[in-house]
Amino acid sequence: MRQEVLEKIRAQVSSHPVVLYMKGTPQFPMCGFSAAVVEILARCGVKEFLAVNVLEDEEIRQGIKEYANWPTIPQLYINGEFVGGCDISRELYASGELQKLLQQAGAVTS
Fold first, then answer.
1. DSSP code of residue 21
2. Structural contact between residues 97 and 46, judged by C-beta atoms closer than 8 angstroms
3. Domain map of the chain by residue range?
4. Using CA atoms, how far apart are residues 96 and 110, in angstroms rounded to an integer?
5. Distance from the Cα of residue 83 to its chain's centroid
6. Tens digit of pLDDT for each residue in 26-40?
């Protein structure tokens, strides 16, 4: 994996409180798992987040898997930390942990 791609990913996740690497866009998700995480973020009250459509950039699509050592997409990052994919996001949402992480990141406006 080219170092520039990993640096680009590092810059994205460190310069935005919430980053979602997904297939498609929040308005037009291209897979059910990406759509589910977008819906979870909306339910948590997140109005703005960086959504990176991995279908538009093959290097990012492969690089993000290496960056987090996680084989699937979507991937959710909060405050520069990898949170997980769809299943983990669902579990954290159900337990209330995701809401706490998002509040700590300043991503939720009350």
1. E
2. no
3. 3-104
4. 16
5. 8
6. 999 999 999 999 999
For residue 13, give the amino acid letter.
Answer: V
Q: How far apart are CA 107 and CA 4, in angstroms?
A: 28
- Can you give the pTM of this predicted structure? 0.95
Q: Is 106 helix (H, G, I), strand (E, B) or coil?
A: coil
Distances (CA, A) of 34 to 14, 20, 37, 92: 21, 9, 5, 16
pLDDT digits (tens, 9 = 90+) for 87-105: 999 999 999 999 999 999 9
Query: What's the mean per-residue pLDDT of the chain?
Result: 95
Residue identified by tokens 């209330």 is 96
Q: The domain 3-104 is classified under which CATH number: 3.40.640.10, 3.40.30.10, 3.40.50.150, 3.30.2270.10?
A: 3.40.30.10
